[in-house]
Amino acid sequence: MLLFLTRKVGAALSLVVVVASITFFMLYASGSDPVANLLGQSATAAQIETRRAELGLDRPVLTQFLEWWGHLLRGDLGTSWTNRQPVMATLLTRVPVTLSLAIAATVVAAVVGTALGTLAARFRGVVDVVLQLVVVVGFALPAFWFAVLLSQTFAIRLGWFPAVGYTPLVESPAAWLSSITLPVVALAAGVTASIAQQVRNSVIEVERRDFVRALRSRGIGPGRILVAHTLRNAAPAALTVLSLQFIGLLGGAIIIENIYALPGIGALAISATNVGDVPVVMGIVLVTVVIVVVVNLVLDLLQGLLNPKARTR
Questions:
Q1: Which residues form the ABC transmembrane type-1 domain (predicted)?
Q2: Fewest C-beta atoms under 10 Å: which of 93, 146, 245, 274?
Q3: What CA–CA distance (Å, rounded) separates 241 from 291?
């Protein structure tokens, strides 16, 4: 297990280093001039050169790259080109919003998807057909359209939830839950469908195995078999789907945040991209990569605990 953990952590760190380096060269060494994009078409050549010197962009790219990594290793993501604020300080106010949204959607998708998939596998016939229909709708439903529909129905017409805005968890847990309920439901719908389909297929496949038949012949109850054996053997496949879908959850969060006016990294990414604020864009990319890598690392470790065969891969 220690070797498995070391291998996974090493691969995760290597991935972060590679993606961070590629991101730097894509943004700083691209064909376009980020300073010209930042200042706009009305800027003169002299103004552009002056601003480039102020930002240190007149130095060799390799020098900038090594200096950027030096700052990064100290936890410094640089300074915003537009408001002169530290990028790390800006992200620390935004990341918790996006992270709470993505994690809550992941938990909801895992719990609801597992429940639906198990029901579909255990109760064949009408129940299975209905749940399969729900899965198909979940696959086909665009997240942004579903988010607008939820807002129009449950926020604007019924007034059960706020249409826009976000309340931090530390200020009021009840208000926080109310502010993220609709965004979480909209974000989790598609992933829930994927997990439900995977769990259904896995449960059906596991229940056909010889060891399950042997447990039944020994008089062990179906509930105990389901919880202690069937779901445990079906869980690794569901975790694989969840790890693959988490990237999509973060991408979908950018759209959902703008629909519900949540102050997460989604709105920040759009505004920073529009004005050409490269340090902020790089900080967002790096933080997003770290979040995805950490979450997938945790899911891989859980899979290793549930499935010893995964430790040898």
A1: 95-303
A2: 274
A3: 17
> Which residue intervals of the chain are DSSP H helices?
2-28, 34-39, 45-55, 61-73, 87-122, 126-140, 143-150, 173-207, 210-217, 222-225, 231-259, 265-275, 278-306
Residue 77 has which token pair? 């993501």
How far, in Å, are 100, 202, 223, 308 from residue 239 at the CA level?
Answer: 19, 12, 22, 14
How far is 121 from 230, CA to CA, in rounded Å? 11
pTM of the model: 0.76
* Nearest C-alpha neighbor of 206 from the set 184, 228, 221: 228
Instruction: Give the type of residue at 94.
Output: R
**What one-character-per-residue DSSP string does 19-60 give?**
HHHHHHHHHHSSSS-HHHHHH-TT--HHHHHHHHHHHTTTS-
- Three-state DSSP at 86 gives strand
Nearest Cα residue to 241 out of 198, 185, 206, 201: 198
Structure tokens at 247: 């990237």
Alpha-carbon distances of 217 from 210, 213, 222, 228, 229, rounded to whole Å: 11, 6, 11, 16, 15
Q: Taking Cα atoms as reference points, which of 135, 117, 115, 106 lies closest to residue 253?
A: 106
Q: What is the torsion angle, in degrees rounded to the nearest 10, for the CA atoms of residue 103, residue 105, residue 107 and residue 113?
A: -150
Q: What is the pLDDT of residues 79-98, one digit of tens each?
A: 887 778 888 888 888 888 88
Chain-centroid distance of CA 139 in Å reads 18
Query: Coil, helix or strand for 80?
Result: coil
